[in-house]
């Protein structure tokens, strides 16, 4: 029997970047999976919890459990939302359904590498690409090794990008530095957030990147806004679009 995968699409992707959701769906369907999209899904509750209103986010969390408890796996193109489900749904009353959902919710790249064991992709993207490693995915989900650690390096997203025909992955000077988005941090500390974002963009430009990619649309939205305001020669694409073989 085909494995049943529930596609979880975060709020900002649903509202602003539906193309990322479509690319994620098409990519997953290439691996002989039965992909479903619960129509009643809403926010996972992360924005409320991050703003200090964790108790107010629990209704959204309960709805998430009801929507996704019947799937073998839940997959989302967003590390921050996945981390919230895995680490913050412990506030819900313990049940078999809560445990199952928390243990079987995966970020897209994590799912492709760790669960499906993908070792090749039918995709072409003939551009120089810089990968922005978002904080929740890297330090929360351990999608890649933190550069400050004296340990063997690895990166699940880069492992997948290296399977894409024609793609040249550029190495950044600061491979895992925060872009400054940080959810409500970008609102409460706007000037600091903008400065951090500009630094990340400059690192990509200095390495000759033509396209900036990453696994969290929230970070990409922040960086793309800064890029467009300055009309810089750098495109932004979510990693799901690249892995699905979509051009700029």
TrEMBL record:
InterPro entries linked to this entry: Cys_rich_dom
Lineage: superkingdom: Bacteria
An annotated GO cellular component: cytosol
Signal sequence, renumbered to the chain: none
An example Gene Ontology molecular-function term: oxidoreductase activity
Domain Cysteine-rich: start-end pairs: 5-85, 129-223
Protein name per UniProt: (Fe-S)-binding protein
Organism encoding this protein: Rapidithrix thailandica
Organism lineage: Bacteria, Pseudomonadati, Bacteroidota, Cytophagia, Cytophagales
